[in-house]
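Minutes, structural biology subgroup

Action item carried over from last meeting: produce the structure token record for ABC transporter ATP-binding protein (Variovorax defluvii). EB confirmed the sequence was re-checked against the source entry. Recorded below for completeness.
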Amino acid sequence: MFASHDLNSSPGPALARAGAEALLCVRGVSLQFRGVKALSDVSFDVRPGEIFSIIGPNGAGKTSMLNCISGRYSPTSGSVHLQGREITRLHPQARARAGIGRTFQNLALFGHMSVLDNILAARHTKLRNNFITGGLYWGTGARVEEMRHREAVEEIIEFFGIAHVRHALAGTLSYGLRKRVELARALALEPIVLLLDEPMAGMNLEEKEDVARYVVELRRERGITIAMIEHDMGVVADVSDRIVVLNYGRKIAEGLASDVLSDPAVKTAYLGWEAA
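Output recorded by EB:
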């Protein structure tokens, strides 16, 4: 665990507590690739304003689950709902417009583009102008919209402390900075739910602490609900409100972080400890 355990010392919004209506609902999701079952009848709820961690050993189906939520995969069966609306068959771009933001385990930045342009690229789902309205929507209206988007992006850049590299090519940055840029790009979508796939993988302790604080601040200051895959149990214990555990594509535990991490089945399946 981290040397400091106060990352999540302030409780989450009241809505994140027990009894709150779910913001994101996963119901009976199964995913099969030919004869391989990646997910088997997995259900869970993510409540408004909480940090919800998805954990499990390699190959447990964690990233497959995020892909089903974000739209990269269509589940074989089951459903996904956001704010009571079923989004199971929506295109990924439509889910982004609905409020699903996403980062990836392997960085997906445009290495040949600047930090600023990478983040601006995420604003395309917010643009009012398109090829149909382009002939009508121009001049002052277009300039005002562009200014608004640039102001939003600059505020995000300041939030993540990357102003000093705003014009640098993303591909030239250190790994830790590129991870921050990817978080910034996801935030530029103005998500209701932010899906983070191992946001601290490959980082040293100092970099992990920085990213963990950003995750907590996104919830605390901006009210963003976060569903996160993370292997570092110190991070998971420090920042999570609740946890779901997957093993071989099945859910084996769900609940408060303190309860789940002490569950003998979780220790055996994931942490590699002998059950008492």
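Discussion: The chain has nine helices and ten strands.
Next step: EB to file the record with the rest of the batch.
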